[in-house]
Design goal:
Oligomer: single chain
Radius of gyration: 16 Å
Largest sheet: 3 strands, mixed
Strand content: 15-25%
Shape: elongated
Structural class: alpha+beta
Number of strands: 5
Length: about 90
């Protein structure tokens, strides 16, 4: 949700972005398929042990709902939902 709250991405884009996971033991950084090659290279340059996961191997599954609470935007009061493509899901109304 950091991508939505801090960087202004819509909820669907935020849910679809590649994820990462840092493990203390064994000490390694796992990055999903589609992660930036330059970011991976930079992290390796800093001494990180980076494991690039193959397409289809997910680190986590996410479902998200966002209620726009900023009254100065045209979307005020609207609810946006996204379901992770990694599980072939889709958002459903109530």
């Amino acid at each position: 949700m950091l991508q939505v709250l801090e960087f202004g991405r819509d909820v669907g884009t935020a849910v679809a972005l590649p994820r990462f996971h840092h493990q203390l033991y064994p000490y390694r950084l796992q990055m999903e398929f589609g992660s930036s090659a330059s970011l991976i290279s930079d992290l390796r340059g800093l001494g990180h042990s980076v494991q690039e996961l193959p397409l289809g191997q997910a680190l986590a599954i996410e479902q998200a709902i966002v209620l726009v609470a900023n009254s100065s935007t045209p979307q005020y009061g609207h609810i946006f939902a996204a379901s992770d493509f990694r599980k072939n899901g889709f958002p459903s109304g109530y």
